[in-house]
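Q: Could you fold this chain for me?
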Amino acid sequence: MSEDQPKKPTPETPPPAAEPAAQPGAEPVAQAPAPATADATSQAAAATAADVGEDTVPMAAVKKTADAVASGGEPAAKKAAGEKKAKAAAAKKAKADAEGDDADEGAEGKEKKKKGLPAKDYILVGATSPHVLSGETIPRIMFTVCLTLLPAILVGVYAFGLQAVKVLVLTTAACLATEAGLQKWMGRKITINDGSAAVTGLLLAMTLPPSAPWWICVIGGMIAIGIGKQIFGGLAHNPFNPALLARVVLLISWPVELTTWMKPGQGFANLGADVVTGASQLGQMKEGLIQQGSIAAAMQQFNALDAFLGIHQLGSLAETSAVALLIGGIYLLYRGYITWHIPVGYMGTVALIAAAFWLYDPTRFVSPLYHLLTGGLFLGAIYMATDMVTCPVTNLGMFYFGIGCGILTYFIRTFGGYPEGVSFAIVIMNGTVPLIERWVRPRTYGTKLHSTV
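A: Sure. Below is the predicted structure, expressed as structure tokens.
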């Protein structure tokens, strides 16, 4: 086909664009057609090359144009609009995910929302119990226990003045310092802010006489935290009540200092060594049985109202007022931190055994009321024996635990060498907790009642 006779356009191919006049000495270049599709552009380029001749339009330019259209696919404006639409869709989906309402959840997700359920399905994660968690935390529980001890502390400070303050401050400070020092030495996280060491210090102070020397308080705090708690791994790992374990060690090691009781009402600022001391109510009972074989003298000096209110009661800080401890116990029971099983089982057992012996021989055995209102029975039954770590976890196990504490307390008080048996009884029963829990563990569903499974 000659150059002066152009080809007529066909319906399948667009007419070729007019070619500019070729300059002498320059290679003519074909003008690229408007991009449409890869096939159409290739056909148009081939037709143009056929019309004007292979020497006029370089095949490299035609191939480059076809490849560009095939790789690009769409015009730049349309491509930008597509990217913008994709970004908007991604942003919308991200917003729906954040609100828990995926774009594809449909009517099912809306129905879940109406029922108060999450629109998204979550993966079930397996874990050990407890599976139902409450809002209670260790610091909250510990500081609540400290708060419930406040009435008994105030009565003790009112009765014994700065002597009581000295014991409270020294034992608590010793417990906090020992826990922080041991945890730092062992490379553990310091947890004195959880309040457990402070509770141990206060409970230990409540078991000591107000006239106890300062070094007794410091050593007691170190024993309670170091031997009673941290040596077993810290909080929730100790098998024995730390405060009572420390008191037992102190009582065995220094019996004179631990059984010298200050009479109340000797002045608030009395910190001297000339305080007037005397025997506690349980001490008078023990002396009467040993020396005279009778408890007549002890019963004559016993006043149930004074013992209940703590007006003229000799003994440790916790032995001054039963009603103050009872107030704190009722609040703990109301909050659900303790149950009735241990206190009722403990004090009920002491009362029943005491009533049996008292009815048998009133001249040698004191009345049940005497046992209930003297000594540290209220403190032990409400605060010490109900320790969450060292008592059984089942209700039946708690009840049996309280019964065991009551039996040991009465027989140590009446027939033992020490006038008070609460500390020994609870520490001994702490060691039997694994056996009690094995004995009363719930039956596995689907097994026989007496199965060993």
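A (continued): The chain has 21 helices and two strands.
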